[in-house]
Fold:
Amino acid sequence: PASSPAPPMYNRQRPPPPASPFGLHSSSSPAMSASNPWGEPGKADKAVYEQEMELTMERESDRNIAALREKVARMRGVGEAVFIEVERSNQIMDNLNQDMLGAGFSLSGTMEKLKNLQNTTSSRHMCYLILFVVFLFLILYYFIAR
Structure:
């Protein structure tokens, strides 16, 4: 009748193998089997897979190195800021120490003068002191009595 006979099987072409899940294409076509629809990988497929894995690992290592560089740069900035703050604090402490030494020398000089005054047994100093105290009481009495 009108239908033509099916072409013989040996003239049919095998469909191309499905794409690799990793986007890898091999130069050799793997043998197809019923248990493994992807076929069994050949030596070329393994080499390409290993190259792709190596590239992937290198990219990941590069990203990790870049992240580590950023962290190191940040830590360096923090370290420099701490160094500057410590230097500034040391300078402030040195200035405070010098001021305290100057105040200590002034106080010791004043104490020496008071000791010299105490050791002087001049009656004139005692008279001046007594007159000052009496004058102070008179002034206070005048302002309070008003």
